[in-house]
Amino acid sequence: MTAAVGFRPTSMHVFCAVLIVAILGRPLLVETLSVPVLQTAATVFVAVCVQALPFLVLGVLLSGAIAAFVSPAALRRVLPARPEAAVPVAGAAGLVLPGCECASVPVARRLMGQGVPDAAALTFLLAAPAVNPVVLVATAVAFPGEPRMVLARAVGSLATACVTGWLWQRFGRAEWITRRAAPPSTDGGRWAVLAETARHDLVSAGGFLVVGAAAAATLSVLVPPAWTEALAGQLVLAVLVMALLAVVLALCSEADAFVAASLSMLPLLPRLVFLVVGPAVDVKLIALQAGAFGRAFASRFAPLTFVVAVTCAVGSGLVFL
Amino acid sequence: MRRDTQHVLLVLLGGALLRIAADDTYLRYVRPSHRWLLLAAGAVIVVLAVAGLVRDRAGPPAHEHGGHTPWLLLAPVLVIALVAPPALGADAVTRAGAGNTVVRDSDVFEPLPPGAPAELSVAEFVQRAIWDTGGSLDGREVVLTGFVVRRGAATELARMTIACCAADARPNRVRLAGAVDDPAPDTWLRVRGVLQEGSATSVTGHVPTLTVAETTVVPAPPDPYEY
Q1: What is d(CA A80, CA A92) in angstroms, rounded to the nearest whole number?
Q2: Which of A132, A285, A288, B132 gives a 20 to 30 Å CA spacing to A213?
Q3: What's the domain range around B78?
Q4: Going by C-beta distance under 8 Å and a sequence separation of 6 or more, which residues neighbour residue A195?
Q5: Residue B48 shares a structural domain with residue B75
Q6: Contact present, A250 and A289 (Cβ < 8 Å)
Q7: Inter-residue contact A151 to A139 (CB < 8 Å)
Q8: How much is the average pLDDT of B117-137?
Q9: For A87-124, what is each residue's pLDDT tens digit?
Q10: E-strand spans in chain B?
Q11: Shortest alpha-carbon distance between residue B164 and chain A (Å)
């Protein structure tokens, strides 16, 4: 037997060891998480994971379906040949696809893998979670008597997606996207391709979702409520703080309107900024994007989207509110 | 992480989602309508893992290095399986600031049903106390269910409202006055009492005061949030 000599622990050994340690250490874990602030953070952490995972699963299934059933040639026929024209088409496609931001990251990555121009795929990435019917209806419900808020949000978000797409088209470089979807393997039938692509995307994106959920949970207990209470009457500061809050709280785009509605001491404009920035850039999305496209991409795309989203939201707000 | 480890991890992850959706545990984190999404997602994750296992038995594809990030998926699995943190309570309410959030849904409310004390959600009670110009709460006995929050010497009854998941929870609170002994924070109470008219103003942070006639300690409801 050479096993004893040449033993190298595989990930399965490590995995089992981690499980055993965690189970043995359960009393310690339970005690640690009974400290009120950690308990609150743990609840928010699990809530964000549990809330987002079904949408991530939907996203990886769509990604798998695109890999298995939609050929690059078919996509080229649907999209205009010129990338400048493909950007608004991708933005409009976001209008009809309901889904949270977690779902759109794997789909956008797969679209790039199937030959869609980077700028158009990124526009879809930004538009899909922000302007789909579910989100707009939720906004209308959260702001009864303020239908202009729905219009301002839709226009601001769509503008954010298209402007970012065009900027990426003009100034972005392909080599900044260091991670790309591997071309789907061709062995097995189409369903096998779907299952394998979805499984692979889920494993690779899921870890980053956990990073984002942990960041959102930590920040949600660290950000003092006085942040928003002190802002009444200071419009410029309120816009900036609400934009930052949207990034750190990482709310689901279908729920953020209710939180914005509850901050009624603020005027509508900063709350609109909150609604436009949130689905475009937040800590959970930054983590997911770093996982899907690489850190070099995320470190450029997140600040770009943030500036564009704040500008578009303020512009849209000045026109419609 | 090797492929076989990934498969096992995915089975555990899908199992965790199915487990919390099988009973009321998921209600600590998301709204009731999310249950079907959790069951579907959990089933899909398990199916994808099993499909991967079956496929690899037929002949493993080229060695795949998945990187280290998949390990992080163990974190929610372990927290759910070993701890299952409770629904947001007094700590989260205290963290959310001092006042009630005031969202004006309407200033016209249906009158409360006549007769016996009206059973209201804390959110509806607060809404009516702040906005109702018709005075539907004036002099009426109501019954509220919520958990205890201590604010200095004062005792408040609170309940979280969520739109999607616990990350977007907003508290509604009612100050309790009168026959209240010293319940510990997070104790669930069923309270019967009458609104002190004009108590929910901007001075009090839109927190109405309830003159309490009777309190009963009750077990936490399966459904800890209001929607």
Answers
A1: 13
A2: A132
A3: 3-85
A4: A64, B47, B48, B51, B52, B55
A5: yes
A6: no
A7: no
A8: 88
A9: 999 888 887 776 677 788 888 998 898 888 999 999 99
A10: 118-119, 141-151, 154-161, 170-178, 188-195, 209-217
A11: 5
Six token digits for residue A104: 């759109």
- Reported ipTM: 0.93
We report the CATH number of the domain holding residue B103 as 2.40.50.140
Domain termination residue (choose one: B85, B105, B136): B85
Residue B96 belongs to a domain: yes
Residues B18 and B60 in one domain: yes
Torsion of CA A255, A259, A260, A263, to 10 degrees: 170
Cβ-proximal residues to B69 (8 Å cutoff; 6+ apart), any chain = A204, A207, A208, A211, A291
CB distance A220–B167 less than 8 Å?
A: yes
In chain A, whose CA is at the least distance from the CA of B1?
Answer: A11
pLDDT for A285 beyond 50: yes
Round to whole Å and give the CA distance between A197 and B17: 21
* pLDDT on residue A181: 79
- Which residues on A lie below 8 Å from B164 (Cβ)? 51, 251-252, 254-255, 258
Q: A312 is written with which tokens?
A: 């578009």
